[in-house]
Amino acid sequence: EINTTEGNDEITNQVTTNSPEEVITPKIMYKTHVQDYGWSNYISEGVSGTVGKSKRLEAIKMKLDLGSYEGSIEYATHIQDIGWTSFVSDDQLSGTEGKSKRLEAIKIKINNMPETMEIKYSTHIQDIGWQDWKYDGEIAGTEGQSKRLEAIEIKIVDKKAKVLMYIDQGK
What we know:
Layout: E1 2-7, E2 10-15, E3 27-34, E4 38-39, E5 47-49, E6 57-65, E7 72-79, E8 83-84, E9 88-89, E10 94-95, E11 103-111, E12 117-125, E13 129-130, E14 134-135, E15 140-141, E16 149-158, H1 159-168
Antiparallel strand pairs: 1-2, 3-4, 3-6, 5-16, 6-10, 7-8, 7-9, 7-11, 11-15, 12-13, 12-14, 12-16
């Protein structure tokens, strides 16, 4: 931006820069293995899976597009007849392929990210529908109810923005 000042037949130009290094927010990339469909493509926003088609999620993979940050993602799934898996990270498969086993629940955590960043996720559950958002390692889905996960949406969010939103809404 160039500021021009005129005065006493003299023109001075001052160059000002307002461009500190641009910070690129990390994005989550995820894909699901869906009954009768197989693997979806990676997405960075929106829903992966199906809604209203009675199809189970069987596996999931996720990774971070870190932008200006360092960090990692970990996730574990609760699988039909198996139970909870160990946490896996960074594009590893959690769930099963070719075994016709449904995912019933999931936990997701991000590590080594700024304290202002958190992960939130919501699952669409058989006979229940969309569940409320879960955060940083909370269980999304069900255990012991034999309900399949049918779809999932995942986001990385800024905690400060969430606090400001609550303040603006008077909550």
